[in-house]
Amino acid sequence: MLNTPLGRFRLLGYLEGASFLVLLGIAMPLKYAAGMPLAVLITGWIHGALFVAYVIAAILVASIHRWSNRRLAGAFVAAVLPIGPFVFDAWLRRKEQADSTGAPPS
């Protein structure tokens, strides 16, 4: 998975998506319900770094695989939605499978 730019992009997508869910589902409640702002500080930094890495990886993969601007925009939109990277990756896998078999994507 890590031996190609696309594989690294996919891994970053999963990590970025998971960090966003942890930020929203665990760190934010800890900050506001338990008075633990450090949880958001640490998780926010991790998520921010992963977000930047995901965007850079998307641009790199888009240039290597000659993605359309629309597909690249989809990756960017996915990055700001809580489960977006997971949905985008599933869509991308279906699209790639359809492209390799010549069948229309579902």
| Beta fraction | under 5%
Range of helix content = over 70%
Rg from C-alpha positions?
A: 16 Å
Spans of at least 5 consecutive residues whose pLDDT stays below 50 are none
Q: What is the count of DSSP helices, taking H or I runs of 4+ residues?
A: 4
Structural class: mainly alpha
Order of H and E elements: HHHH
Oligomer: single chain
Report on the architecture of this protein:
- The chain has four helices and no strands.
- The chain is mainly alpha-helical.
- It has one domain.
- The relative contact order is 0.13.
State the main characteristics.
elongated; 0% strand; 82% helix; mainly alpha; 106 residues
Task: Explain the layout of strands and helices.
Layout (H helix, E strand, L loop, with lengths): L4 H30 L2 H28 L4 H11 L4 H18 L5
Q: How would you summarize what this structure contains?
A:
The chain has 106 residues and is an all-alpha fold.
